[in-house]
């Protein structure tokens, strides 16, 4: 009887010793990717960033196109005409009527024409609008970059937290596996019950299943991160080893919503709509233009390009300079209708600006509340982990002295694993709230700097 008690005591001491051994199966990454590096690659590789840069370049050409309207327009034309049948005209000289052909079978000309706008309100308005268009695309590119930064940061911390959960399960798996091996050895020697081995095998299988699910989740999250980074999906990446620390100081201070890129884009768009209205109003203004041409032509009965006056072909030059003034008087009300439509477009975007300001204000208030709750939750989960660790240690000690069952020991291990996972989930919630707050303050670009 005493021998059985000694054996049981040795079994409990062996299990307790096995639970005191902690290991980690995480491999050292050869190349680690920081959040800043992930953002940098995304801004270099993502199609959205590249397309935004192309739009800015396109705007430069639009400015050149608008500027060209204020510069002289020079063109050259040349022509060769053969008239097989020349129409006759009836002429009267001194009371006599004469039928005569006015023209020659062959005629050729080469003309250079110059047109210069002296006053055209549409050209001047178009030049201003083109410059604002470039500023609009610059702001739009900034907005695209901010969206990319937000997506990358969110995906990055999603991977980070899932990897932390995987580390927790790896530790739990290693501990339970060592306990299983101890119990298995004791069962084989007749020093422990088979049911204890079955329980640990069930626990090990459950942990293994959860671990495999997390491995898959980490892989899927990494694929999402690589997509946002704009790198090939088969590129191996490892995250930089770094802890998450709450920053309560982010809550301090006020935010100016007018500095948000979303508002700037809408305001610049409103400016473009105002230029569109002015360009439409320009159709009510007169236009003044200068036109000049110089030409050289030949006509006669023979092919003009190889003949001169001796063969009946006359070559001569000519020139003309004119000033054209066009004054719109009545257009049937179409211009007025277009102006009114342009005005409605401006009023419409005013509503968008007002609604966006309300939305951004709501997002800012909600992000403040979320980050405050996240900080409280992190502290609570952190204390819960410490308590779960204490319960685990006490349960192991009690089991060693026969005051706790194996089930209670395994349950305490599960509780510790859940507590650690809840803590890492709280860290993810905090990071997501932090990103939302940084976005609400219009400071997403600060995530590019370490």
TrEMBL record:
Its main location: membrane. One of its GO terms (molecular function) is porin activity. Keywords: Cell outer membrane, Coiled coil, Membrane, Signal, Transmembrane, Transmembrane beta strand, Transport. Gene3D superfamilies: Outer membrane efflux proteins (OEP) (1.20.1600.10). GO terms for cellular component: cell outer membrane; efflux pump complex. The keyword Signal applies. It comes from the Bacteria. It is found in: Cell outer membrane. Residues 1-29 form the signal peptide. Residues 32-60 form a coiled coil. The keyword Signal applies. Pfam families: OEP. SUPFAM superfamilies: Outer membrane efflux proteins (OEP). PANTHER family: OUTER MEMBRANE PROTEIN TOLC. Belongs to the outer membrane factor (OMF) (TC 1.B.17) family. This is Outer membrane protein TolC. The lineage of its organism: Bacteria, Pseudomonadati, Bacteroidota, Flavobacteriia, Flavobacteriales.
